[in-house]
Amino acid sequence: KGNMKFNKETKQIEWELSSPYSIECIICGEKAPLIHNNYSGYKGLKYEIFSCLNCMVKFCNPRVPPDYNKVTEESYSEYKEFSRKLKKTPTEEIIEVLNENSITFAIPFEYLKDKNNLAILDMGCSYGYFTYALNKLGQRAWGEDISSEAIKFAEEEFDEYWFGDAPSRIYDVIISLETIEHVQNPTNFIDKLMGRLRPDGVL
Question: Count of CB atoms within 10 A of residue 85's CB?
Fold first, then answer.
């Protein structure tokens, strides 16, 4: 529906549009033109994809959240077996096993290196394996997820750790991996997380 180009005068990336259709950006409120139509998504649902001219974020329309209990069971059930595998993993090998599963875990582990006993919220914890790992590695971690089915599994599998609606407390660190793309209002989501952090805390 359009092409990106670099404006040498303004030193900005701009869209050269072939479609006039645009809506308001979900992040900054500026104009976001349509760049894809009938884009195939979850279970064959069709979406429009927009890209903001101001902040460059891309997002879909409609933004109707699916049934996350159903999505978790259908799309992420293999992580149940991974959770069981991690529970049997020696503590000194946990980071290696997680990083083999996804490089995403390397970012928080790099920050947490040489830090211990931090109050951590794992927001969007799914089946709880990362929350479990954080606790095994010397942190005080709680997990929270929108999927009641995922939380039920986490509580049954890792019953010594806290899952569900995490305690109403202030955290040193909040980690939310591969979550923000699933929420209806990203800025509101971030604002709420920031309200649960210490003044010098890290998101």
Answer: 13
Low-confidence winner among 23-32, 73-82, 124-133, 189-198 (lowest mean pLDDT):
73-82
Q: Count, in order, helices (H) and strands (E) of the chain.
A: 7, 11
Distances (CA, A) of 184 to 26, 48, 81, 91, 131: 9, 15, 29, 36, 24
Adjacency order of strands within the sheet including 58-61: 22-24, 31-40, 46-51, 58-61
Give the global pTM: 0.81
pLDDT tens readout for residues 174-201: 999 999 888 888 999 999 999 999 999 9
Token look-up 């990106």 returns 4
CA distance 3 to 168: 46
Q: Which residues pair with 33 in a beta bridge?
A: 22
Return the bridge partners of 5, or none. 14
Instruction: Of 203, 133, 128, 129, give the one whose Cα is nearest residue 166.
Output: 128
